[in-house]
Amino acid sequence: MAVYRFRVCLEDNEDIIRDIDIKSSQNFEQFHLAIQEAFKFDNKHAASFFVSDDYWRKNREITLRKEDLPLEPEEIKQGVEPKKLMIDTKIASFIEQPHQRFFYVFDATAQWSFLIELVKLVEENSKLNYPACIRSVGNAPKQYKQLNKLQEEETTNSKDPLLAAILGNSDPSDDEIYKKLDTGEEGVEQDDLDSLEGEEGDEDLIEDEDEFSNEEDGNDGYDGDEDKSDNYN
Q: In CATH, what is the architecture of 3-140?
């Protein structure tokens, strides 16, 4: 019986590799479980294989759960082929070329994506229990580390009142927005605002004094003319 050797690597880190041998008569659910075990994941989330071309473009979907089989109305309009169920689909049924590729997605929330490529056909080893991981390169990432990071980023962003307002999470005060929009690292302090208001008030006083001074100068000139007129007479 033919045995396929697939190379499985993380899409985001192709240095983390697992080579898995699986019999041609075995199904995609068995392949899915072998990947879960090889990467030390808990198999508690939905998963799908996608038949892929040489450019890793997704085509026919082979899904884990029956409830995920129905197509969305938009997919039907686009002419998407009906999905297959892993447990009912043998590996051999989708081997169409010597280096057949599959795109494997697990846990849509955490977005774990794997690139899978058939690397060779090997002889069956009676000592192995198939499917079997026969080569491991690189430490597997923690399954929920990526999800925790996303949650931490969301929590951090929610503390920004301006961003929270944009996202519709809260209604920040004008003072908070004003401070966030300021070009410096810190918001404008109240003492600075008071100081600016004080300076504006001083400028108004100076202008008033100048006008008053000009009026007095004009009156002195007029009085002087009257005195000259009297002296002339």
A: Roll (3.10)
